[in-house]
Design brief:
Blueprint lengths: L33 H22 L1 H17 L1 H21 L1 H33 L3 E3 L2 E3 L2 E7 L3 E7 L6 H5 L2 H7 L6 E6 L2 E7 L22 E6 L4 E4 L6 E4 L6 H11 L1 H6 L2 E6 L15 E3 L2 H22 L14 E6 L3 H6 L3 H17 L5 E7 L15 E4 L6 H7 L20 E5 L7 E5 L4 H11 L15
Parallel strand pairs: 9-13, 9-14, 10-11, 10-12, 12-13
Antiparallel strand pairs: 1-2, 3-4, 4-6, 5-6, 7-8, 7-16, 14-15, 15-16
InterPro entries: AAA+_ATPase (IPR003593), FtsK/SpoIIIE/SftA (IPR050206), FtsK_dom (IPR002543), P-loop_NTPase (IPR027417)
Keywords: Cell cycle, Cell division
GO biological process, one term: cell division
């Protein structure tokens, strides 16, 4: 019929794309000559042979030496030599186990972990985690540069693909930790396209830590209060800073407070340091009340204590003006630590609006002006939201114990802390005292655990280390 298509014409279907979409340009696929494939594999073999002495110098040197001895003296001499080496290593391991572990054990472990854990699973883990990049139908992966092992963790140094950032890894720490079978993962930036992934092999802070020994000469800038994840002492700085401790009920805030007080005991005894305590619950700090130069357990008494601290701070600043810029603890001008347990009671929960206003003004004044003249605020808090505590940014050093929500991690430790591995919201409820610490000037959170100071330890502290000047200075329930 007249409307029928001509024999040479093309019939257009309803699903046919418009002419502008009908063309797709693709690179032609050409068969690769066998000679090029063989040459590529030979080039890779040459590169591997050249790199081996630099990557595994001891193993390559041992293999070359064994080969030369075999060629010169025969296989019996090689067997005798290796037997002597084995005996020497055994003696080294038994006689000097620490140095053997450092120079031999951890290096062998690093080589094994590199090959068996990371190199073998590198591509599938990164592809599934979304860290592999594709360009012109070719896949690019970050490259492992080096793997080192410490007593507790693996450190994988990685060179990033050009055009990517460390934030890509920071946003995938959970996927990387699960992919390589580690409890957690943290990212450290060393330079452009150079990052280190830290994978703990086990939880070194799983066991409770008993109360630490009282130091003979306390360092108020580095008080031992627990252990870090790498096994080194966790030293808390109080002199010259302010510290905010945040955690839900039962997370171990009391362990941090009492460990810090315990580490200061000699300074409290000789009068070069003082603790002014505010304890609205009357259950935590009241147990060691005789250790404190000032004590308050009601809203009105707490505000009076804080305002007295502000008055002394201003009087000291007036004396220091034009004469000295930093504070040295003395009996005349002692280092004063204002310990605030459940500070939200004063800033948000107290029914008297005037008390809340006065308390907030006093805390803001102490935290903004006090550290240069020897005043420190050590505050404990459960809820870090702004409407509860809007003075968080005035505390340079922050400690995040177990938290309720993931969003609270960045509220306490600052933006990006959770992306760097500070998963305080995932701390197990059976691990009180475990926390992440972010210090002033350092973006990297450190996992720590505070020592547990028991009631018996506090009894011993009050019996043996109570300052002689504390009598008559305590304010209880608002009475001076």
């Amino acid at each position: 019929m007249w409307w029928s298509p001509r024999p040479a014409s093309q019939q257009v279907q309803a699903t046919t794309p418009v002419p502008a979409q009908a063309f797709r340009f693709a690179a032609p696929v050409l068969p690769t000559p066998v000679a090029l494939i063989v040459a590529r594999w030979l080039a890779r073999l040459v590169v591997l042979v050249v790199k081996l002495p630099f990557r595994f110098p001891v193993a390559v040197a041992a293999a070359v030496a064994s080969f030369l001895v075999w060629r010169a003296f025969g296989w019996i001499t090689v067997a005798v030599a290796w037997s002597l080496v084995d005996v020497g290593l055994l003696v080294w391991w038994r006689r000097w186990p620490v140095s053997f572990r450092r120079w031999v054990g951890l290096r062998v472990l690093a080589a094994w972990r590199w090959w068996w854990v990371y190199a073998r699973q590198w591509q599938p883990v990164l592809v599934v985690a979304g860290l592999a990049e594709t360009y012109q139908e070719r896949q690019y992966l970050p490259r492992i540069r080096r793997v080192t092992c410490s007593a507790w963790a693996d450190r994988v140094r990685v060179r990033l693909v050009a055009g990517t950032t460390p934030a890509d890894f920071e946003n995938r720490v959970a996927e990387l930790a699960h992919g390589f079978g580690a409890p957690s993962c943290r990212v450290t930036v060393l330079g452009p396209r150079d990052v280190v992934l830290e994978f703990p092999r086990w939880d070194t802070l799983a066991e409770p830590i008993a109360a630490l020994d009282v130091p003979t000469v306390p360092d108020l800038g580095a008080l031992p209060v627990g252990l870090q994840e790498d096994g080194t002492p966790w030293r808390l700085r109080l002199h010259g800073t302010h510290v905010l401790v945040v955690g839900v009920t039962g997370s171990g805030k009391g362990s941090v407070l009492w460990s810090a007080i315990r580490a200061m005991l000699p300074a409290l005894e000789d009068g070069t340091a003082q603790v002014w305590a505010v304890d609205p619950k009357r259950m935590e700090l009241s147990y060691g009340r005789s250790l404190f130069a000032r004590y308050a357990d009601t809203g009105e008494a707490a505000v009076a204590l804080l305002e007295e601290a502000v008055a002394q701070m201003r009087e000291r600043a007036e004396r220091y003006a034009g004469r000295q810029r930093s504070h040295t603890p003395t009996t005349e001008d002692p280092f004063t630590v204002v310990v605030l347990d459940e500070v939200a009671f004063l800033t948000a929960y107290h029914p008297d609006r005037d008390v809340r206003r006065r308390a907030e003004n006093a805390i803001a004044t102490l935290t903004s002006q006090g550290r240069s003249v020897g005043f420190c605020v050590l505050a404990a808090l459960q809820d870090p939201r702004k409407e509860v505590m809007n003075l968080r940014n005035l505390f340079p050093d922050k400690i995040a114990l177990r938290l309720d929500e993931a969003s609270q991690v960045d509220m306490v430790l600052g933006e990006g802390a959770r992306d760097r591995g500070a998963n305080a919201h995932l701390i197990d409820s059976t691990l009180p005292g475990v926390a992440f610490v972010r210090l002033e000037g350092s973006p990297m959170p450190v996992r720590v655990r505070a020592a547990y100071v028991s009631d018996d330890d506090i009894d011993t502290m009050t019996a043996n280390h109570a300052p002689t000047s504390s009598s008559g200075l305590c304010a209880v329930g608002g009475a001076a």
